């Protein structure tokens, strides 16, 4: 079965929730009959060991907020949610998923109850297991049976994706897989698209993504916080004030989604064109279509040298000077180049149990400081290079042999302050 950009975006959103605590919930918005519930159930069933599916049109707020219960010997009441959530509440970290169907049909009281789930990661007073994913499905405003839509606080806690009727190619692929399963005697077969996994260690690059986002927001401060607009549209669907808008929460979620997409792009196992569309849909669903267009234009000009090449020439001051000639006037680019080098050095050091790349990163930072004159910017990355007890790693201690290399001596005050000396 072929995978559309929307389905890829949905899977990336679920994987980020499964592997970090900074992921936003994913909301799938589409007209009745486009296959939201069937697709989501098939994907979630393949990605998670445990999940709970329920419809807000058939639930009361107390089922989510909990019914008061005083345990024997306790002085304070606990609030116990409905038993339909038991399987997810008992799941191991990263193995459970909540599927919220008809997410706005239960009215504002049910939405308020679920807001506590999204903000406090708990049902009633019972905490959800770490990295429990949440996916909601709802109809667009004009197709809602009650006329309800996401409240502002709820909308800001989801990455919103529009699911439209499948193209002929997608439909043909879907029905072909359906009838193959049907001929094997399967009951109610729902074809599952290819399931993606994020590459190991993908989160390490979030620091570089954060720097890119910070550079964009420094130059476009008005996009740090945007108010929902009545004209707010997503993928051609008018969502009005229930649509996505930029804030600190949605930007943080966008950073991890962007990082996941970049890791998949480098890995090269998914179609690049579909991934590019999925990345755009994820960004639009977090920070709005208009801000996404501005951000992607900014990102397109964010052309930086390869950190592998930087490490290769780290000890050659002239080569390092050549690297920074184009970027010396841009503080953010200087910072992210150094952060990329440090991230790669730490990754190679951890994987290879060898200090060569780590020591080369010190040489690179020293030369970067001398050729750019931006000591304050460089010092920030020096601290990253010392993180996670690097000096105590056996292969680092073996390489140093109790001596301090010249590049490290140049940063002695920073090292002493960091080590608490």
> What is the molecular shape?
globular
Task: Determine the fraction of residues in helical runs and give it as a percent range.
Answer: 40-55%
Segments where pLDDT lies below 50 for 5+ residues? none
- What is the H/E order? HEHEHEEHEHEEEHEHHEEHHHHHHHHHHH
Percentage of residues in DSSP E strands: 5-15%
- Secondary structure: number of strands: 11
Radius of gyration: 25 Å
Coarse structural class: alpha/beta
Mean pLDDT: 83
Helical segment count: 19
Biggest beta-sheet profile:
5 strands, parallel
Task: Give the neighbour order of strands across the main sheet.
Answer: 2-5-8-1-9
CA(first)-CA(last) distance: 60 Å
Characteristics:
two-stranded antiparallel ribbon; single chain; alpha/beta; five-stranded parallel β-sheet; 421 residues; globular; 11 strands; 19 helices
What report would you give on this structure?
The longest helix is centred in the C-terminal third of the chain and has 22 residues, at 331-352. Helix 1 packs across helix 2, helix 8 (206-219) crosses helix 9 and helix 10 packs across helix 11 (289-300). This protein has 19 helices and eleven strands. It has 421 residues and is an alpha/beta fold. The protein has a five-stranded parallel sheet with strand order 2-5-8-1-9. The chain has a two-stranded antiparallel sheet with strand order 3-4. Strands 6-7 form a two-stranded antiparallel sheet. It has helices spanning 5-19, 36-47, 61-65, 86-89, 107-120, 152-155, 168-183, 206-219, 248-267, 272-287, 289-300, 307-312, 317-324, 331-352, 356-372, 375-385, 394-400, 406-409, 412-419, and strands at residues 25-29, 50-55, 67-69, 78-80, 96-101, 122-123, 126-127, 133-138, 158-162, 233-234, 237-238.
């Amino acid at each position: 079965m072929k995978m559309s950009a929307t389905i890829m975006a949905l899977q990336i959103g679920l994987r980020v929730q499964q592997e970090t605590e900074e992921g936003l919930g994913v909301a799938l918005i589409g007209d009745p009959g486009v296959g939201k519930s069937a697709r989501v159930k098939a994907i979630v069933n393949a990605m998670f060991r445990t999940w709970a599916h329920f419809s807000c049109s058939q639930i009361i707020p107390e089922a989510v907020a909990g019914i008061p219960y005083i345990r024997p010997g306790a002085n304070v009441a606990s609030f116990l949610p409905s038993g339909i959530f038991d399987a997810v509440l008992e799941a191991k970290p990263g193995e459970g998923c909540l599927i919220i169907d008809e997410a706005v049909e239960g009215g504002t009281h049910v939405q308020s109850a679920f807001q506590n789930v999204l903000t406090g990661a708990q049902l009633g007073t019972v905490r959800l297991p770490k990295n429990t994913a949440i996916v909601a499905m709802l109809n667009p405003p004009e197709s809602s049976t009650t006329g309800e839509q996401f409240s502002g606080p709820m909308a800001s806690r989801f990455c919103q994706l529009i699911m439209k009727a499948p193209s002929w190619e997608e439909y043909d692929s879907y029905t072909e897989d359906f009838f193959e399963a049907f001929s094997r005697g399967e009951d109610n077969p729902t074809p599952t698209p290819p399931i993606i996994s994020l590459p190991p260690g993908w989160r390490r690059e979030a620091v570089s993504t954060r720097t890119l986002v910070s550079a964009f927001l420094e130059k476009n401060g008005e996009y740090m916080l945007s108010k929902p607009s009545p004209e707010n549209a997503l993928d051609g669907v008018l969502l009005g004030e229930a649509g996505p808008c930029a804030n600190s929460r949605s930007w943080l979620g966008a950073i991890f989604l962007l990082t996941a997409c970049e890791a998949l792009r480098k890995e090269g196992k998914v179609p690049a064109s579909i991934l590019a569309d999925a990345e755009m849909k994820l960004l639009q669903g977090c920070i709005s279509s208009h801000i996404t267009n501005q951000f992607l234009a900014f990102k397109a000009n964010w052309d930086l040298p390869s950190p592998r090449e930087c490490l290769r020439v780290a000890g050659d001051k002239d080569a390092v000077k050549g690297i920074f000639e184009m970027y010396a006037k841009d503080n953010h680019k200087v910072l992210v180049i150094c952060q990329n080098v440090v991230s790669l050095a730490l990754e190679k050091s951890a994987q290879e149990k060898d200090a060569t790349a780590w020591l080369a990163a010190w040489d690179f930072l020293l030369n970067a400081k001398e050729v750019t004159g931006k000591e304050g910017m460089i010092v920030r990355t020096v601290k990253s290079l010392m993180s996670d007890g690097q000096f105590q790693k056996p292969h680092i201690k073996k390489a140093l042999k109790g001596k301090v290399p010249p590049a490290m001596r140049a940063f002695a005050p920073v090292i002493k302050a960091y080590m608490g000396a």
